[in-house]
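Revision sheet: structure tokens.
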Amino acid sequence: MKTVRGEQVSSAATLMVFCIFAMLAFSVIMLGALAYRNISGASREGEDERGCLSYIWTVIKNNDNAKNVYVGDFNGAPALYFEEELNDTVYQTVIYHHEGWIYELFAMDAYGFSPDSGSRIIEVGDLRFERLDDGNIIVSSGDLSVFIAPRGAVGEMRNLR
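Predicted:
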């Protein structure tokens, strides 16, 4: 069978156009996957920060007495302390940030424990606490902040951005 040179050129050109189209399609798919990964990563970080603040707000509201909730220092890191009395013994619950995680520790005297002694709760970049003069607390993680009034229904959760 004899082939004509024009058919060979036409076949080669068709194959070349197909290869260019395949490379462009692959590039578009890879760019889309990269954009999706970046968006989902940013979304996940925001969810962790919001989840962290919601968790702390709930813990404060469950320990609904301003005099039993205070901000202090736990092994060099800012921490949120809750005190409660059970069977004539005072216990402390401490929420603090250590090595990229929020920890919670429940003990009779939390000052004698190391940061690794608590239970890991959620992974977040940072966590800050500030107690205002009126007893209200501002909790911040990343770009989000929450104002909390630890006195029953008076407290509200609002974004302070």
